[in-house]
DNA sequence: AACAAAAATATTGTAAACAATTTCTATGGC
DNA sequence: GCCATAGAAATTGTTTACAATATTTTTGTT
């Protein structure tokens, strides 16, 4: 009768190291492990119930993703994003995701476009109902961008954006209780969608770049207004 | 005297894992470990004279860089680049390095520009002397691109390009004995340099994108002409 | 002889013990 | 009272041994 594994999770999907890496990523991008937190091997080893070997592998993986930084003989910490680094991330994201939008305009299937359209409708109704709060804002935004990125059909591009940059962006969003602007974002998403539907790659790229550039400026502004009273 | 370390290398700079990772990268991008080669832990553990722990860490690191692929309980292999993957890499490189050129146009110091100019002069004389062969072609090309990338002053961009994409490109260049076209490349480098010197970011980006796009088409052509007789 | 199944081998994944380095703490001197 | 230094504790780096999985070889059957 449903003999479970050693952990109370579902059946083991891969190796312990992979599982712990997933848990660690979740703890970081959810904010349970805040920026700059020490990653103690013995402590987390006990917490996750695995040996130090698999845990070290997980840490190594996260280091490759840029979520933690390590110093020899000193240990690992959750990365601390400065404003400069966050701006750099968004600058790279702008170039990469602009390219993704351009490719997606010619490569997305009709079905993918229909799905994207219904996603936007769902998002719109949620905004009207709850007058622009709730989790759907962050998640919906992510969902839209993930679909466009995947629509590019460029595996390397997908990996760079989803496995590296977006983890960092999610981490920042959670740790800084910044309020998004769902109405404006939705309007921009709808314009991007129209360009995709029209198979207009140039326009899709330009709109996506402006969309991300706008988000970057908001963040820079937010940080500025928050750093001031902390001095 | 000069009491050396356990290995005959210079003094240990970091940890064994880091050192082995460097050696592994060297073996891969030099072609000593060709594409698709098995990465046997016991074998390489003996070869490099370290335990399996540090070697595994090195493999993990290379997996993060995209140089090796791992399968659970099966092992690691040097990545095999298909034409599709190579095209994808160059597409991403085009977007990223175009951005780097645009940023470099406004951010490179006058001294950096002078150094870049002298590098191009050195490169030109080498081509005229040896009529376009010798190692300087590959190395010189890399050197030029590295300087422009670093001129962007965007650390994340630098890391993406130098630590991930360029390793893969170097690997491909070595394993496929493809001949470069140093004269054409130099001419294009000189045009890019002029745009940088004029602080014309838009032009620098466009020229860099065309330069890389051209290289991509050459590679695609080369692969096509090589894959045909192998069918 | 060819195929399938089962045992043997080898390799990877994991845990535990040891070594080396760093960090914290306490003691002594100024 | 403060700083420097020496020792102790804790953590990371590394090796070794063990367990689990995959691959290969062997053996038996059709």
UniProtKB/TrEMBL annotation, chains A, B:
Pfam families: FCD, GntR. Gene3D superfamilies: GntR ligand-binding domain-like (1.20.120.530), Winged helix-like DNA-binding domain superfamily/Winged helix DNA-binding domain (1.10.10.10). Keywords: DNA-binding, Transcription, Transcription regulation. Transmembrane segments: none annotated. One of its GO terms (molecular function) is DNA-binding transcription factor activity. It comes from the Bacteria. Residues 14-81 form the HTH gntR-type domain. PANTHER family: TRANSCRIPTIONAL REGULATOR, GNTR FAMILY, TRANSCRIPTIONAL REGULATORY PROTEIN. This is GntR family transcriptional regulator. The lineage of its organism: Bacteria, Pseudomonadati, Pseudomonadota, Gammaproteobacteria, Oceanospirillales.
């Amino acid at each position: 009768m449903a003999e479970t594994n050693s952990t109370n999770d579902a059946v083991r999907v891969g190796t312990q190291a992979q599982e712990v890496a997933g848990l660690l990523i979740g703890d970081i991008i959810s904010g349970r492990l805040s920026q700059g937190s020490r990653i103690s091997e013995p402590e987390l080893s006990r917490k996750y119930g695995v040996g130090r070997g698999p845990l070290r592998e997980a840490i190594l993986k996260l280091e490759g993703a840029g979520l933690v930084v390590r110093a020899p003989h000193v240990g690992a910490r959750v990365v601390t994003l400065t404003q400069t680094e966050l701006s750099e991330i968004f600058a790279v994201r702008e170039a990469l995701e602009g390219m993704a939008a351009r490719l997606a305009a010619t490569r997305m299937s009709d079905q993918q476009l229909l799905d994207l359209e219904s996603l936007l409708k769902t998002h719109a109704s949620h905004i009207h109902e709850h007058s622009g709060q709730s989790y759907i804002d962050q998640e919906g935004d992510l969902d839209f961008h993930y679909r466009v990125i995947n629509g590019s059909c460029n595996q390397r591009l997908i990996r760079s954006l989803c496995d590296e940059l977006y983890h960092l962006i999610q981490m920042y969003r959670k740790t800084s209780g910044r309020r998004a602007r769902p109405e404006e974002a939705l309007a921009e998403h709808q314009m991007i969608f129209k360009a995709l539907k029209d198979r207009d790659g140039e326009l899709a790229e330009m709109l996506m770049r402006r969309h991300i550039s706008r988000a970057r400026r908001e963040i820079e502004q937010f940080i500025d207004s928050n750093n001031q009273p902390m001095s």
